[in-house]
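Protocol step 4 of 5: obtain the predicted structure for the target chain.
Materials: sequence only (see below). No template structures provided, no constraints applied. The aim of this step is simply to have a reference model before the mutagenesis design in step 5. Sequence pasted as it appears in the construct record:
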Amino acid sequence: MPELIDVVEWVDHDPDFIELYEEFEENMFATLPDGEEVEVLAAGAMANKLLQWCNGATYTQDGAWSHLSNAKLDALEEIAEGDENLLVAYNFKFDLVNLQTRFPKAVVLGKDPKVIDDWNAGKIKMLLAHPASASMGLNLQQGGNVIVWYGLSWALENYLQFNARLHRQGQGKPVRIIHLIARGCLDERVIGVLNRKDATQKSL
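Step 4 output (structure tokens):
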């Protein structure tokens, strides 16, 4: 097996964002900069909402969402300036919209086998994939050796299996797993559990 290198790339949202994030976390309610209001009534829903905020947006109502920050997009753009092909894991539908807007040449991993062939042939610079749809059965190790977790997942099995798309036999280079972690936000707690050797779904 190739060497596996875990990397944390800290992302700093601006002070106004952090102030609003903390207000929302404490009160379970916030009025967003665009005037939309967001409220949660249970701790489980709050945990999911805070992960949305970590990525720079949040759902408001009926599938609509409000944009809050470009910090993670900016961090990914810096990484993408290198020569390596990137397999990028996103969590929410608005993540995909934002990623495709910032990186119009990025390719979405779907059911088309040609996409996998092109990736493994080194023709795709950035491949966007949801962990739930790419966590098992796909051999992607020929196309690159860098995974970027744009948004973290609560599903430990999906996390481990997604990383195994590149970190597997046949991979000829060390594999880097880069986690974009919003400093001072729920991302920190999630990555802390994911990186524990004794991590379980219950602990998450």
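Step 4 remarks: The first strand starts at residue 4 and ends at 11. The mean pLDDT is 93.
Proceed to step 5.
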